[in-house]
Amino acid sequence: MPSRDAPDLDAFDRSILALYQHDTRAAAASIGDSVGLSAAAVQRRLKRLRAMGVVEAELAQLSPKALGFPVTCLVGVELAVEAARELERFKSRITGRPEVQQCYYVTGESDFILVVLAPSMEAYEAFTREALLSDPNVRGLTTHVVLERVKAGVSLPIQR
To answer: Which of 18, 115, 123, 140 has the CA that lies 20 to 30 A from 157?
Structure first.
């Protein structure tokens, strides 16, 4: 169920987004045929949804393995000090690292969970030394090496 902070989207918006998120190259006419709107109406709605920030980005999903990044690690990072300034400093540093594909500030044993891609375990180890272990505020880290990418994506379960 959407949060109270979610923008007010009607059934057409939701239907468009449900289709669009799986193929951003789909023609507006094709989407329109599926949802019962004209191509121009679909284009106007998509423009509005972009302006509202509902559509954050339009990306190509690439294969890490095919591009030389066969190692994926899920990394739990525990900070020594969680003061606002230290949290922002860590976020800023880690989001600047191209190896970090995703970063989540979480509850539980770790303060952050990172999804890190690397061309080799040696490269991952170098990343941990440079980006994590050299930071005096990193108390510890736990690495889970991914054996198989079973599902990866960013599509949402939109109710139409």
So the answer is: 115
